[in-house]
Amino acid sequence: MLKYLLLSTALLAAPAAAQSLDQPETTATTSGDDQIVVTAARAEQSVREVGQAITVINRDEIERRQTVVIADLLATTPGVTVTRTGSIGGQTSLRIRGAEADQTLVVIDGVRVNDPSAPGGGFDFANLLSSSVERVEILRGPNSVPWGSQAIGGVVNIITRAPTEGFSARANAEYGYADQAFASAGVAGGTGALSGSLTGGFLRTDGISAAASGSERDGYRQYGANGRLGLEIAPGIGIDLRGWYAHSRAQIDGFSNSPPYGLIDADEYSKSQEIYGYAGVHADTADGRLRNRAAFTIADINRDNYLTQASAEPYFGGRGRSQRYEYQGDFRIVEQARLIAGAEHEDSRYRDGDTVEKTGITSVYGELIVKPITALTVTGGVRYDDHRRFGDRTTFGADAALALGEGTTIRASYGEGFKAPSLYQLYSSIGNEALRPETARNVDVGVSQSFLGGAARVGATWFHRNTRNQIDFDLGTFTYGNIARARAQGVEFEIALKPVEALTFTGNYSYIDSENRSPGANFGRDLLRRPRQTVTANIDYRFPFGLSVGGTVTHIGDSFDNAANTVRLDGYVLAGIRAELPIAERLSIYGRVDNLFDEDYRVVTGYGVFGRAAYGGVRVKLG
Fold first, then answer.
1. Which of 49, 297, 315, 354 could cysteine-pair with 111, CB 3.0–4.6 Å?
2. CA–CA separation, 609 vs 85, rounded Å?
3. Whose CA is closest to 440, among 400, 481, 482, 485?
4. Which residues does the UniProt record annotate as the domain TonB-dependent receptor-like beta-barrel (predicted)?
5. pLDDT per residue over 185-228, tens digit each?
6. Which domain holds residue 402?
7. What pTM, to 2 d.p., does this model score?
8. Domain count for the chain
């Protein structure tokens, strides 16, 4: 009965948002307390109306930091840790507030891109380059009401370049350490009812040895492109098409089958192809109070591993595909009340050799956003999921933001998350069809304060999350099981200063106590590869004649590389410097040095890391 009641509510009460998730980037965003975000409720909101913790990275920051691999930039944000197995292209895992890497939902232009064929159904950040990325929103904490399964740790929402009026173009090319060449170019434009954008990128590098003990370099190459097309059929009614393509090839090392065991140089390599697509329609009615969006999305990921460069056939192949049909509504009931609701269905498929498995989930959700007084915004929501294998599940969430005078905002939220077992965990040769979904509950409280007319901002957040029925590999049965429980709690501090127009300083500190609560020998021990403390500081200065200089320092604390906490990963400090100089109105040259002091460290035992590395490039912008 509840299923049909919620479905009726979603369809009748939520004629929806043309610009909720699919067109957030068409809305101008500003810094600080005036930013517009879309990830919390899957609809546009001022950040001062959101009770959850969100970090926003825009294109200016990506270019200022001279980012190539997006994960390297995300690693410097509050509550986020990143590990990579060796060279560029190695498995890259992102953990938010101590959650498992595959408990983070990743969205690119409205398409959920987590891989159904990956062991935990997670997203590998190894192949996510900066060429097409215009904006990133990182929401920390469970948020399953609008997003559904996998949003236990949080949500990373990637938004690419939107079509624009008129014509604009940008391009950059750089070269540096390990024969690394990176180039990207993009155009955007529109006239009348038709608008579009197209961006392409290329990266190749000799890399470093994935094996810390190795000597031969493990290179990487990627070709990628994305495009968007918008057509306004009538005022407030239109069609949106988006596509993303990336083809990557990475050399990898293997493990020794004889003593001494460990990672060694090998001739192996992997190939992956990622295709993501979105086709949607939107319609605004009732003078814009009712916004409607319907869409079909697809994510298709192919992965193959080869033993040698001469191998004709892969020794491993994974094929993951998910297709979604979705409708979302945004109804402005009155000025003080807003209802966001939707219905969606997802089919996912996993293929490993001759094994093909499928599953599906149908969902409805609703969120009510009310402002009982001007300064207070309260959001409450519920989601109902009907999983083909696991049946019904209802998820709740609520948050509140109190925006007081003088730049003070107080936030609080309660969020639930759940994650259905991946198809690999259920049906692979080491799978377990008796698995149950993972669940989590999270509370957090935070405050932010602006000073000096917005020239200074500070913020602090406390959070606590419990995770139950967590899936882990059971060495006793040599299969997956719901044998794990985890608790994560901590604090996050942020500061941003702009004492003069030319100088910017930002910094953050995170303390995350992520603890194994599973009964057994490892009860109370730290979860692996979760440093308790991380600190990042950025400073940038622009001289009157145009030269910009900056630097980033990041400290990652000690952690452990195994569940028993017997293999320690020592903490380390990384420093980098950068500069950019305009040499014409639309042309500039830039350069950077990463790992300035040539720090020797490990993020995964046995895998190598980059030492000091320098790069230089040129950037051009038109329009």
1. 297
2. 8
3. 485
4. 175-596
5. 999 999 889 999 999 999 999 999 999 999 999 999 999 999 99
6. 2-622
7. 0.93
8. 1
